[in-house]
Every structure is written in C-alpha cells, then in structure tokens.
Specification:
heterodimer, A: 649 residues, alpha/beta, Rossmann fold, seven-stranded mixed sheet, six-stranded parallel sheet, 17% strand, B: 206 residues, Pyruvate-ferredoxin Oxidoreductase, domain 3, six-stranded mixed sheet, 6 strands, 40% helix
Chain lengths: 649, 206
Amino acid sequence: MSYLIDEGKNVQHLLMGNEAIVRGALEAGINVAAGYPGTPSSEIIESFSQVAKERNLYVEWSTNEKVAVEVAAAASFAGLRSMCVMKQNGVNVASDFLLHLASSGTRGGMLLVSCDDPGALSSVNEGESRLFAQLLEIPLLEPGDFQEAKDIIKWAYELSEEIRNIVMIRSVTRMSHASGNVTYGPLPSDTAARAKFNYHGPLLDPENGPVISMILAAPELQHGPQQEKMKKAAAIFETCPFNTYTGPEAPELLIITSSACSLYSREAVKILGLGKRVGILKLATTWPLPPVFLKKHLAATERILIVEEVAPTLEDHVKVLAAESVQEIGPKLFYGKKSGHLPSVGELNPDLVLAVLSRLCAVPYEAAAGVFATEAKALMEKLAPPRGMIFCPGCPHRASYWSIHNALQLDGRGGFVCGDIGCYVMGILPAGFSTVKTLHAMGSGSGIASGFGKLRQFGMDQPIVSVCGDSTFFHAAMPALANAIHHRSPFTMVILDNRGTAMTGFQPHPGSPINVLGETVPALDIEKICRAMGAKVEASDPFDLEKTREKLGHLLEYAEGAKVLILKQACALSPEKRGRKKYEVTVDETLCRGEDCGCNRLCTRIFGCPGLAWDGEKKVSHIDDIICAGCGVCVDICPAGAILKKEVA
Amino acid sequence: MTAIPLKKDPYSIIITGVGGQGNVLASRLLGSMLADKGFYVTIGETFGASQRGGSVMSHLRVSKEGVASPQIPRGRADVIVSLEPVEAFRVLATYGNPDAVLLTNTHPIYPVGVIRGELSYPPLDELQDVISRLLPASYFIDATEQALLLGNAILANIVMLGALGRLNIVSFDRENFHAAIGRRVAADKVAVNLQAFDVGYGMVQV
C-alpha cells in the first residue's frame, strides 16, 4: 500500500510538496485529476495514479493542458471534486478555456494547480502563472510549507464550492520538489461518488442550468457575478488560517512574503538575530488580498520589504492597497524589486534575503569565513572543470541530430532546424551539434517551420527542418503540420519518437498502448496520422545512421509540401532499455589512429557521448564500461573502424 | 543507538553528484531515516536536468524546531557527501566552511569537456591533498569500485550512506536504514542494498 493512503491516526510522513498536495486532495475526497507532464509538476498526477484504484479516482495524462482543464471541468460540472495540474507554461496553453471557465463558474470543487519554476531550473523560461489569477479573476493560494501544501487543499475545495468557481494553487520548484514532514488527517471513509450533470434549469442558474460562457453584449450577467465571487473570496481570506504573522507588535521592518520565500525569510531573520526587530507576514492568499488583515499589519510599521520571486506581483498588489488606504495607515517606505533591493530575474535563496536584510537593518553579514571562501573558490576554478549539459549515453537524440546535421551539411544550402520542447532542446548546444536555430513553445518549431517554408516567395532557399517529440506531436504540433500541409509549405518535420514523454519521466501520451492507470488503451499511430493528413512520410531507426541520412537527404531534396521523417528508437532511460546493453562496445587501440587519424577526434571531440572518452595519456579513444549504454552507434562514426561491437547474448 | 544531538539547528547536509548516480534516492533515504528518528527534515532538490550529465545536489536540513529553508545558505553546510570527487570540491567552495565534514566517492565521472579532450580532470591525489588541507575532516572512498563488486555501480550511493553511518555524526543506524530502504525499493532488492550499506560502513575508520 502506498504511504500516500496511510490511514494511521496522526501518522507522519516525509512528503514532497507535490505529494503533500495529493494527500490533501485525497483527504478532501477528490474524484478526478488530469494534467500534462512538466517539471516540477509531474509527480502529482503520477502519485494520484498510484492510489487511483484504492481511492476510486479517475486519473489521466491528457493530450495537453487545455484538455486537462476541460476534463477536470466536466467532473466539476457533474458535481465531483477535481484537479487539473500543470507547470507554468501549461497555464498559457490552458488559458483560453480557463478564461471561459472562470466566467461560467464551476459546481463541484475544482482546483488548478500550477507549479512554477523560478530560475527556470528545468524550463525554457521562468514565466510565472500568478498573473493569470488576476487576469482570470479567480482566487490564488500559495502554500508556505509542506504541511500547509496538504492542509490548504481541503480549504481550497471548500472555497471553490462556496464561491462556485475554480481556485488556483501555485507552487514553485522549491516547494513541489522539496520535501518535509507532513502529519496526515483522516481520509473520507466513503469513496463512492455519483456524477450527474443537471442542465434543465434556467440559463444562468448556477446549480441546475446549462454551464455556458456566452453572454453576448451583456457582460454584466456573468462578469458582474464573477466579480462578486472575488469580493466574497477576499472576505473569506480575511480569516484564512494560512496567513500568519510572526514578529514584534510594531516591527521596524515588515517582510511580506509567500511560498518558499517565506522559508528563506525566516532563516535570514533567524541567522541575523532580528526576531525582535523584523516581522514576517506570510501570505497564503495572494490574490485577491484580504484588505482589512493587510491594513492592520501595514499600519503597524513604517518600512515594508516584499520578498517574492520573478515579477513584482505581490509588491504591486500591496502597494496599490497601501496607496488606497494611505489616510488610514499613513505613508510607507517599500523595498523589493522596484527599489532594486531584490532581483526580478532568477529564483531567490536565503543568501539574497540575508543580503537585503543585512543592508536594511545595518547588521553586517558574511557568508563564510573569508580566507576559506576565497581560497576554495580560486582552487575550484583552477581544478574543477565545468559540467556541461549533454545527451545521455545511448540517447537516440544524439544519433538523430548527428544525421540531421550531416544531411544539412551535405545539402550545403544553409539549412537549419526549428526546435521544440523536450530533451532535444539541447540541439541548440554542441551536444546536438548546434543544429537547432529557433526554440520557443510546445509545437511551435513546426509552426515556425511552416512559416519559413512560405518565404520562398521572397527568395529564401534554405532547407527547413523542424524537430518534435512524440508527446509534443499530439500536444501542439498536429495543428502546425495541418497548416503546413494545407498551405503546401515545404519543410521536413522530423518526429523524434522515443516512446513516451521522456524528459519528465516516461508518462504515456495518446501514442502509448498503456495509460497512466496501467490499462490497455488504443495507441494512435503517428505514421498513419501523418499519412492520412496528406504528408509524404518516411520512417527510420535513428541508430541506423546511413539509412537515416539517406532518407533525410531525399526528403530535403524533395521540394513539394510538408514531409515527415519519423525516427523511432526508445529513450535510453526508458523502462524497457534501462540497464540493458544491446552491444558490448570496445575500442581496438591498435586500430585507433589517435591524433594522426585526420578525423580530428571526431568520436570524442564532436560526437560527445559520455561513454566514449579521449584518453589524454595514451592518446586514443576508449569506452567507459560503467557509462556506455551499448547502443553501438559510435561504431559507425569511426573512419578507421577501430570501434567494435558485439551483441550481448 | 541513542539519538546524536544536533550540533546546530538546523543541521545542514548536502548530498551531491552527477545525474544518474542515485543522489535523489540517497537524500530521500537519509531524510526518511532522520524523520523516523523524530526530526523535522526539509530536503531541497534540483533534479530537472539531472539525467543529462549535469551536477545534482540535494540539501537536507535537520531540525528539532520545524521546517527550514530547502536551500542551505552559502558557507553553512555541516556535512558534504559527494558521489563524485570534483562535485565535492564544487560544493565545498560554495557551501563549505573549515568545520564541515566531507565524505566523497573517488570514482570520477568526466564532464563533457574532459571527454572531448578539451579540459583536463584534476589528478585524484592533487584533489585529495587540496580538499584535506581545506577541510581537516575529509574522507575518501572508492564507493563505485565496491558497488561494482556487488554487481551494480548504482549502489555507490548506498555504500556512501553506509560510510556516513560509520562517521557517527548524524543519527541513524543499520536498523534505521533497513526500514527506510524497505519502503523505497522492491523486496528482492533490500538484501543487496543492506550489503552495500555494510560495505560502506566498513570503509571508513574514525
């Protein structure tokens, strides 16, 4: 039995923030959860799936985030409690439907969980989702530790049902992917739920009418009530048990903070011994702000420091409230991003908060003993070579980019690749031979390629290639391909099919034969889909370098319309491959010509597989047996035939 | 065993290494052992790009008082456990201090620049000299070699946990480890993990 459904009384477990959110939802009696994988959010849906059977849940990895919200909304309309889960970029994808949903309102409690990634630790940007709460006019809650990440979920479901609208929960990497002790509450004893969608009532009846977002030229009918819901939420927030204050009655400096930043603030205050001078107001309800509660704390101080990550969102909201209440609370001095005391780029940490507090409170602070720190740093720069990002040993993407790069070089017309989202973003780096020249959102590589293809009219004659993963194909690249085929845009879409949503941990997608619950499901065939859409389609094994380059060269020369090359080979870390070598690979040192080869160390200097390294002493290449995954691809790149492979029995 | 009192609160441990070395499992195991002993444990992890050859680091905070920051402030690590020697050095330069205890695996994993022959990897004895001079309490063991003898390089993380147990600076023992590993891995893998723990325990002298 999973520890997530431990029913022991007051039992405590060490949970990741994401797991705490799941436990909270289970205690609240959630019925339906849907999401699309994305770091740092993926463990939420995975954890739900592990207990789906025992807790009578429906859980799915949806095709994309917009569909995930729609699936969860249906459950809400039928009176169930649901959750949709995504990383920050996913909220952008879902935002169209979310805007309509916030207008139509919900029935059963419904939560949107967005896990943001300040510092873009595993994202292509650090775009933040908090601003969506303001745009969508829905309440926003941000848990400040792991216990709260569990406890706030039940409270959020009650809020959602009270105001009949979706409630947004925002986590960050340092909350979702951090762990802490969580004391459990009881799970509902009855997991039977009955879904029914009532639609026989009048049009705008929130309980029994149709659920629509379509009041032409009469916004007051829905938008008005939606804003009333926000006023109600603000009133409820006045007594929210998750907004807490620690510090003196009249602090000389008040820190207003939320989420992981509240932990950094607490640590900084403790280290500097400022507990009697500085107060910390930790907010869980960051939109809308509870005005009375805020004003009480603002009135007690003259100086306010806002500690938050990325955009000055909380800072702006607090300043507006302070300006509106200036007669009540008096003028204030604000410190934060706008004053330049904290950066608006990258994630925060205790050191950044220590630095600003040390400055504002005139308490000197030095991180480490001076000489040690300087000496260690100097030695590190001298002795520790930096660790660049690289494709894993046995990764099909290395082989795919090798062929794409070589085919484009042979073609000689200055062709390039429009990139997409997955591990293969590393095509912009030497790891992928720097073949990728544009990189943006999910599916946009093929959309951009579709546009480039139409620039022939203006004399552009460079061959265009796009890359896209199998999960990305279903998520957002199919409309781009349809567009290209329909408009006869000549480019080659290379689908890097590694059999799963690999970067985030092999979550299934519509092309997978098994779903997240382990059930057998219809697997959509990408090759057949592309053919049916009208593209010229080829398929190859990327580990077969010769055949792949040949097919690619042929497609590049073929001038008409959109072409698709599907490169099928499972990810080296996939459960089917992990820990199994297909080949035992060795370097015959008598055949390796070393520096005299004339290939200029193509195998190690360019190919860059961690399993194949240059031996600086012997001046030959060698295989690192512990690291080599046994894919055997390097055998075909050595001009001297010095790399040998033998099939493992 | 009786619980070892915390020398500081929060007491800060870093487990570092390279993606794919089992760093995250090691930090979760250590975290759950300490939570079982009644401590508040906060773990911060960076593993988004972990499987792609990058450095991976977990910060563990152990406290009697409550949740701590999932990121350790610079210069404040009390213990550094590293699954790779250069990573140990990288971490100690940012988070170390002369009183920190360091335990590192000596088996190198070469960064891509070294594989390409463009950068050089420092000789182990030089690295060992420099580290020992900076941190008097440093321990060096070839955990990967022992893990390979047990049949799988990935067990180096458990060998390291065993060695950490022997150092007797953090409150956990074999029984504790047995319970924690039993919750994390399949039943047929428990024995080999216990073996790896024991091997590590025997690898350091204190």
